[in-house]
Amino acid sequence: MDRRPGPSVRLRLTLSYAGFLMLAGALLLAAVWVFLLRYVPERAFIVPGSTGAPITAVFPVRSSLLHVFAPRAAAVLAFLLAFGLVGGWILAGRMLAPLSRVTDATRLAATGSLSHRIRLPGRRDEFRELADAFDTMLARLEAHVGEQRRFAADASHELRTPLAISKAVLDVARADPDRDVGEVLDRLHAVNTRAIDLTEALLLLSRAEQRSFQREDVDLSLVAEEAAETLLPLAEKRGVALETCGEITPVRGSHALLQQLTVNLVHNAIVHNLPEQGLVWVSTDVRADGGAVLTVENTGERVPPELAATLTEPFRRGTERVHSDHAGVGLGLAIVRTIAQAHDGTLTVTPRPVGGLRVTVELPAADPQRADT
Ligand SMILES: Nc1ncnc2c1ncn2[C@@H]1O[C@H](COP(=O)(O)OP(=O)(O)OP(=O)(O)O)[C@@H](O)[C@H]1O
Ligand SMILES: [Mg+2]
Q: What 3-state class would DSSP assign to 362?
């Protein structure tokens, strides 16, 4: 914003200090003056010694007092003014010094340098709190921007992969005209499907991130049941047994997004399971505070805890080959996390000691106001 220059805060504080000092000084002098007036008569009778002579002289005492008092009072006030201005200027400068560091850091951040921190030394006060809050904000911004950059790089890389595979397939087909066209078409179709899946996942992610969806009353247990039903054929094909349980679990949010969240979790539980005789448990529950909990648990290979902590990051895959056509996109859990966060909820991924994962989504109470009334 373009503002007209005004008097600095340091100058204003200095003038306030000096002004108050002058006022206090003037009040004190006025009090002294009133005190003097009360005890000094307007005219004094001077009676000489014990000679018993008649009255010899009468002096105008008050006026002479004023003559003596006024210049000294003025000198005191002038001293107070000078003292107030100099002292105020130094004090205000010292008080405001941390603010200039905050301003410098803000200007630096505005140019795009987010790695800088103020780190104001000293004990906690208003300025330190401001500086610390600013440092925290910078750290979060830096992490966020870094995450976005990584995401953009990963997404570009992922989007390039199917295109590069298509090009390779086409090059090979062109070099060998006798090649089976059907096989080439199948390959291209598979690669194309993967590219569409990836783009759709990216679109879904950005839609959930924008939080621009209608909120409605949703029964999470019903959504979980539907997801299990939809994925039952896949589970059967892979020899995985699905088990669902849960009472009515009301939440408020987007039905479509919550459905996507559940489908992603159940899909993961089925495809990242044991090669045979795998098990999946899907359950929903209402917490004591009215919040909803969706838990999807599955058997499978052991997942190291440090790997489990990173699985929700975009394009993070476990052990499968990353660039085969059949590998997942690697956005399933990132989408789940984003949808959960868009509903003010949380996602927790915990490895089971015997292998497989336990994934929990916690969502806030459907309508806390209504529950209270
Ligand atoms: N229920 C699970 N059990 C074991 N491992 C899992 C489970 N869910 C996810 N993982 C691991 O986490 C990785 C990331 O999962 P995510 O759903 O984000 O991607 P994906 O399943 O590979 O691909 P897609 O985007 O197609 O879902 C998976 O590759 C897998 O290794
Ligand atoms: Mg997945």
A: strand
pTM here is 0.74
User: In angstroms, rounded to a whole number, what is the distance separating the alpha carbons of residues 311 and 260?
Assistant: 18
Cβ proximity of 283 and 295 under 8 Å: yes
Q: What is the CATH number of domain 144-210?
A: 1.10.287.130
Does 299 have pLDDT greater than 60? yes
How much is the mean pLDDT over the chain?
A: 89
Q: Residue 291's CB: how many other CB atoms inside 10 A? A: 18
In ligand 1, which atom is closest to the CA atom of 359? 1
The SS3 assignment for 279 reads strand
Ligand 1 environment, Cβ below 6 A: 201, 268-269, 272, 298, 300, 303, 311, 316-318, 320, 328-334, 356-357
Tens of pLDDT, residue by residue over 218-267, are 999 999 999 999 999 999 999 999 999 999 999 999 999 999 999 999 99
Q: Which atom of ligand 1 is nearest to the CA of 357?
A: 3
Domain parsing of the chain, residue ranges:
9-113, 144-210, 216-372
- pLDDT tens column, 31-61: 998 888 887 777 665 666 555 555 555 565 7
Q: Which CATH number fits the domain 216-372, given the four candidates 3.30.565.10, 3.40.50.300, 3.20.20.70, 3.40.190.150?
A: 3.30.565.10
Q: Give the SS3 label for residue 51.
A: coil
pLDDT value for 308: 93
As a whole number of angstroms, the distance between CA 23 and CA 6 comes to 25
Q: Which residue has the tokens 């993967």?
A: 194
Tens of pLDDT, residue by residue over 327-373, are 688 999 999 999 999 999 999 999 999 999 999 999 998 876 654 44
Q: Which amino acid is at 235?
A: A
| Residue 228 φ then ψ, to 5° | -65, -40
